[in-house]
Amino acid sequence: MNLNLLHGVVGQSVPRVDAEAKVLGKGIFIADLFFPRMLYARVIRSSEPHAKITHIHLETARLVPGVPAILTAEDIPGRNEIHVVFNDQPFLAPGRVKYVGEPIAVLAAESPEIAEEAAEKITIEYEVLPPLLDPLEARWHPDIHLFGKDNIYRHLKVRKGNIEDGFARSDVTIENEYRTPCQEHAYLEPQGMVAVPRPNGLMDVYGSMQCPFYVQEGVATVLGLPLSRVRIIQTATGGAFGGKEDVPTLVGVQAAILAQKTGRPVKLIYSRDEDIISTSKRHPGIIRYKSGAKRDGTLQAIEVEYILDSGAYATLSPVVLWRGTVHAGGPYRIPHVKVDSYAVATHKVPAGAFRGFGSPQILFAAESQMDELARALGMDPCKIREKNLLRLNDETITGQKLTFSVGNLEAFQKTVETSGYLKKRNQKKETPGPIKKGFGLSSVYYGVGLGAGGIHLARAGAYVQILADASVQFAVGTTEMGQGMATVLTQIVADELGLPFDAVTILETDTSRVPDAGPTVASRATTMSGNALKDACGKLQESLFRAAGDLLQISKESIQIKEGWAVDSGKPGHRMTLKEVIAECFKRRENMAAAGFYRSPEVSWDDETGRGNAYITFAYATNAAEVEVDTETGVIRVLKITAAHDVGKAINPQLVTGQIEGGIVQGMGYTLTEEIVTKNGSVQNPNFSTYIIPTIKEAPEIDPLIVEAPFPNGPNGAKGFAEQPLMGIAPAIANAVYDAIGIRIKELPLTPERVWAALREKEGRDKRSSH
Amino acid sequence: MRISGVQTYSPKNLEETLQILYRHPLQFYILSGGTDLVVKMQDGVIHPKHLLNLSFVRELKGFSSEDGQIVLGTNVTFGEILENSLFRKQAEPLYQAAKCMGSPQIRNLATLGGNIINASPAADSVPPLFVLNAEVCLESVNSIRWVKIEHLAAGPGKTIRKPFELLTKIRFPIKPASWHGGFLRLGQREALAISKVSLAYWGVLENGVIQDIRLALGAVAPTVIQPPKTEAFLKGNTLTETEMTRVAEILKTEVHPISDIRSNETYRREMCGVLLKRALRQLMTQCT
Amino acid sequence: MIDLKFTVNGKKVQLRVPGAKRLLDILREDLGFLSVKEGCSKGECGVCSVIFNGRVINACLMLACQADGSEITTLEGLSKNGKMDLLQEAFVETGAIQCGFCTPGLVVASRALLNKNPDPTEEDIRDGLSGNLCRCTGYTKIVAAVKAAIEKESNTRRGDS
Question: Any idea which fold C86-160 has?
Fold first, then answer.
């Protein structure tokens, strides 16, 4: 640790740097961007889940005045390919469609109305083919091949200990099948991009996105341009949650190819329906889970089969599956493990990244199983968790030894104590009316960053410049999407350079400013860009310390910098303003701009054994849910959620609690109401009147708690965690529902219809058994 | 999707409005609050060429209480209903239904007349109007008729309104002192939700005996319905738990729900019984 | 086409527009009030909330021909001479903003609520904001922001008297 730094704003709940522009409603989002001579784009999409395109009729659409370009797969100047993990996805369907909503053609028109009119005049003839819509049917299907010979994008394994021995040593085993639904991100700002052609064949693309470097690659590939001619600028992004990881590449290329063809700016903003029908979602999951434990509650073994319904192209499924597989055991010591997981191709809209990335599905199963084991053993669910939680120097299921920053037990204890879980559960009284109360727990952990599944992308660049007036500009390659990265990084830079928070300005993310920083996913922005910024700031500190040392006539090692001052650490009264120091640096013609870079520590993974040091570190959390179940209607009300999260270091506690609260309510939606319903592969609820996310009326009371087990490789000890708040909500609520009504519901969402039917079934069972 | 190529007409008085309808009965779509029509236009479900905008027709605004009746103009919004204590005191079922409709934004746009004439089986204002004995006024250039609300709808989205007629007013009798009522529903969430099942009740209890009661249910048949057998069973009955369970069973035989994106047939049917029991318990409390 | 005369944020405006053009598009495209967002086009999300004759509505569901003669306030009309409305200050201070796309609509709906009821209960606040979806915050800090603004406004009122 550098003793030259006294920390000022890190750890403080300073207001967001983007709050003012947002609260004043400034035109900072992509739909707010207008350019002269701008055209408006539309995408023409497949109405079939699986078909050969026999003819595309463009003639009548071409007759509509004011439509300078209509393009199909034949008109692509570069490669018809969107690379995510594999190269299986075309940009425009080349003669065959594999999901309803797959892009077939794009057009640009003088106004949105004309674009609409022309789009309606395009008709497509299909030879309809049988679709595969059920992943269990699609896996190893003998005749219909979507991907490879078996329709499996990836099969992963974890093998630890000896599974037979594990179950032989278990006094109880519990085996269940769980199902989880397809969840829509429902970011409030729909997808959108504006492409602006520049002289000399350059293409600028502005838009709402998480991963500008992905968009850059996609635009260059399809347009046939070198990466050097493509510049991507992120506009304020109105929510993403993973939904703007890979999808914006498609949207950006759709706008850019039309801009290239017409030589004019092209704007493309998806309608809500179009967005829901055609963009990625959370994978529906099927989880077969067998757990074994000793009489005292010690976990012995888990055997898991995990199947993700991945849709028509691989997109991110191979890595979503990987994260889910690594997280299969939950945050516990388990000596004997066998996991087999499959990402299966189906004729549906490709599933992709969504907060938690393959882990919420499997954790719903894992954490339901913990409660079932507890019940079979006559233990409180609290005790079985406490007994098995991973502690310092324990090993994860992939054999990773946890040698630092393990706030697992502390988060657990903080939640259990603060929520009053044990007292409430033990003192619960049977109430006569239809309303039954219940209390449930879940413990989860989250591998921070891309891990071994994406190690090739695990680096980040940054650029920092001190200006002559002692203000600072900096840029990173990761993005702000609402999570608070811009503010947190500004805090880090301010403290690194000893300058006041408001002297530091973050620039918009622009691929031409910094080297490829990888994607803004996996809760990695704070750690990766934070460390890259520290690297850059370290170079600038050198100049500051040297100049300050000379001016104060002390050794540079004795200098401390803080909130605008350079101070003699031995004699705090002996100091001078950093303004003067910076002026001296400029007088000396020092380089006051620096590039920074960070490469994350090595991680490892063996595909054959499923063993390795999967992640650089883990975040931990325990949730306690309090619910009421109306046994006449099946309606569940979540009254309160208490959640403690080990975040390493809360650089901005208000932003941390904001992430906890937001993730919990998103998780509550996943648990209770949210489910994309398809019929013959076609989404039946593509809007907010039928796809039901929580409103302010359903939002429960939330008690967000912070635990700080510092991460030695994180900036100021911080580790990423913002996905974690969603991950354990479903099992916490489901466990509370079990506590309330004695029914284990193994399929999400817990709709009133499902709960009511389960209550009915139980009533029937109880009646039969009493006779 | 953008709306284009539509002509709008905004008459200032009823005479002018009825004249336009009379001359071009089939060409016009009528724009009242727009919360349904404008959505359908944007979805491309309908493609009107001509819109008749009722916003500025002064005769269709406001409400009054006269000759033992409360009379509302077709363009009264749900926001206006909620802001007036007249409805809270005199028309509990309607007031409560207005309260759970959509959202504040929707309630400030959506009109009572629009909600009725859409003839959605799930329209929240209609079961209350059934139990309040409401009538609606259908007017044309040369006719005027008052129709009982239960005779208006002919099926989902269909009414007996003739193309040249306009629904201009809604009226119902002022509440007799001893009557009480309410509106209960189940939706997919608490706000911004279309009802899965709804039930309005309006009745009078004396010494624990139901003197009279009116019930209506939404979203459980092609139109809003009244359950005559259930009502008949309840009249003169005392509300013991056994009787309530019996009557809930009767009600379930009088509804014909479907399965759709919001719920399923069995659940909807069963919930009719649950809501009825809850309504009856509420009525008992209200009448003591 | 119709001649639309109305007042937006205190200024009289006259425009020639198609009678069925949405108020949302008029405010954004013809008048440049970009705080009014488009999120669902069905009145389900509330990001296009504006105050119309004193009441909050969805601008995506209102057509030009219905707005004639009306008085409309958008978020831009709430801050005066560069000074934020107390609600805006409270949203910033309590951390009620994440991605910011729903923020204008939520501030406008909160303003409409407090204009009618300066001292709402928590239930009133939740009712009043039930037409505005937010996917980021979990709503906790939004409720806190409105409560903080109520406190600020009541202090201001006490200070005035």
Answer: DNA polymerase; domain 1 (1.10.150)
